[in-house]
């Protein structure tokens, strides 16, 4: 029976790890480090320009990121940003520091010569006051836009099969963007930027706060929005010897049981930790 339980726990770890492999970016401002850490299993490194952590505004963890319009958090191009023709979810928490004017960009992989992939932005030429929208492949998408309040708002862009939808606090805004057959998001060679547009368009930055940024290579059920707690992080190497093996299970069974209860089951549905 003991061996069976250990085998079951091992299978649960592998299942959860497979699920978390689909989360390619998990940016949490509450990390203890002064730097901006990707908490996904891929640990993507970033370079920050004028981005600050603040304790005056946050959703979870006591801190968020503040962007002053010229700030940016830069992640080099990576195959993980390629959304292609697969299901995906891009979600984050936003709070504007004033009325949205000009061009303001919470996240983008968007460059005129390196390729247009996706961008979430307010553009005064295309959007009403305080409205933000989502564009793909260099095209304005009229269906994917909504008005942002002056409170913290969870936004999520979700592709499910051949439909893309935009959600604010778990409620769909705009309308369904129905995709043609074989539609795919362009594979841009540009950097991924949080809080600004790609190289060459600095100054089109976000003015306000951002928290809990996540890119996931599957469609998260919108019934899970908005998250009620910070996103789970995975730590399967319980004895921290650099190897995930049976010794982790034997050494830390109680911690593993708690982790399975609080994070494994919710993680399978893209939910937050209990």
Automatic annotation (TrEMBL):
Gene3D superfamilies: 2.60.120.200. Residues 1-21 form the signal peptide. Keywords: Signal. It holds the Pfam family Laminin_G_3. PROSITE patterns: EF_HAND_1 (PS00018). Coiled coil: none annotated. The keyword Membrane does not apply. This is LamG-like jellyroll fold domain-containing protein. It comes from Saccharobesus litoralis.
């Amino acid at each position: 029976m003991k061996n069976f339980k250990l085998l079951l726990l091992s299978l649960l770890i592998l299942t959860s790890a497979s699920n978390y492999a689909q989360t390619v970016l998990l940016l949490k401002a509450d990390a203890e480090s002064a730097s901006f850490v990707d908490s996904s299993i891929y640990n993507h490194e970033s370079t920050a320009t004028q981005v600050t952590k603040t304790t005056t505004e946050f959703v979870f963890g006591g801190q968020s990121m503040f962007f002053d319009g010229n700030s940016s958090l830069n992640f080099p191009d990576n195959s993980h940003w390629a959304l292609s023709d697969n299901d995906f979810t891009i979600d984050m928490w936003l709070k504007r520091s004033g009325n949205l004017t000009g061009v303001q960009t919470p996240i983008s992989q968007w460059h005129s010569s390196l390729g247009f992939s996706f961008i979430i932005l307010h553009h005064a030429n295309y959007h009403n006051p305080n409205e933000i929208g989502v564009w793909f492949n260099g095209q304005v998408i009229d269906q994917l836009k909504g008005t942002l309040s002056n409170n913290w708002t969870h936004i999520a862009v979700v592709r499910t099969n051949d439909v893309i939808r935009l959600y604010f606090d778990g409620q769909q805004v705009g309308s369904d963007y129905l995709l043609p057959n074989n539609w795919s998001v362009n594979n841009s060679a540009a950097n991924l930027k949080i809080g600004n547009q790609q190289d060459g368009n600095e100054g089109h930055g976000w003015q306000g706060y951002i928290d809990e940024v996540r890119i996931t290579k599957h469609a998260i059920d919108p019934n899970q929005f908005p998250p009620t707690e910070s996103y789970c992080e995975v730590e399967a190497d319980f004895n921290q010897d650099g190897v995930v093996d049976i010794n982790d299970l034997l050494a830390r069974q109680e911690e593993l049981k708690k982790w399975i209860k609080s994070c494994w089951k919710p993680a399978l549905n893209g939910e937050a930790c209990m």
